Amino acid sequence: MKLQLTRRLWQIAGGLFFVQLIFAFAGTPPALWEWLDGSACYPRETPRYVVVLSGGGIPSGSSLIRSYYAAQFGRGLTGTTFIVAMPADQDSDHSSVGRFRDELVMRGIPAGQVLMETRGLNTYQQAGNIRQMLGAAVLNAPVLVVTSEFHVRRAMLCFRKQGFQRVAGLNAAGIGAEADPGLFAALRYGFWGNLITHIKMFRELTAIFGYKLCGWV
């Protein structure tokens, strides 16, 4: 019985990897890409709160990209509060979450406008803690969630589940080299980049399914 189950799991895993290989060559269905990355959810109003979700410690590629996008969007806004959400086991000012805040300040966001949420261990908990931090009176205020590509949809769903009514998303995606990479670029870079992208997409779809089972979205 265990052998049959193990064999079946290997078959499913192999099938999923084969599908990923096909997508790596053929490209991603545009509708799925746009649904995950929140391209249609760009803010149409000035946010009262900008929430920057962590992607890792500082320095790390994902967190630095998110801080860059948040600062580029928020520089010059008045009356907007920024909230950095990242777990911290030690003094916030001297851990990654403090350095995350400092990245925003270095890029032009006033230090007095940046709050830190350090207790949430996943996106749903972070949304709930931010609700407690701000109070129920702000649930109808416009909120912008800044996070990495493919995580935008799950993040927005979590905030809406916690009662926030006006949630928008900003996709903090990396940008590739703009110069022509030369001969066989599709094979040297395109295929492998697509493969990594589709692994991330499958991971995110699995996470959304898990959050749905838990009642978090």
What can you see in these coordinates?
This protein is an alpha/beta fold and 217 residues long. It folds into two domains: 2-35 and 184-214; 41-171, Rossmann fold. It has seven helices and five strands. The chain has a five-stranded parallel sheet, sandwiched between helices. The chain is globular and about 55 Å long. The mean pLDDT is 82.
Blueprint of the fold:
Elements: H1 2-26, H2 30-37, E1 49-53, H3 61-74, E2 81-85, H4 96-106, E3 114-117, H5 123-134, E4 142-147, H6 152-161, E5 166-171, H7 185-214
Parallel strand pairs: 1-2, 1-4, 2-3, 4-5
Strand line-up of the largest beta sheet: 3-2-1-4-5
CATH architecture annotation name of the largest domain: 3-Layer(aba) Sandwich
How many β-strand stretches?
5
Silhouette? globular
Q: Under CATH, the topology of the largest domain is which?
A: Rossmann fold
Q: State the CATH class of the largest domain.
A: Alpha Beta
Compute the number of structural domains: 2
Mean pLDDT: 82
Assembly category? single chain
Sketch the major β-sheet. 5 strands, parallel
* Secondary-structure element series: HHEHEHEHEHEH
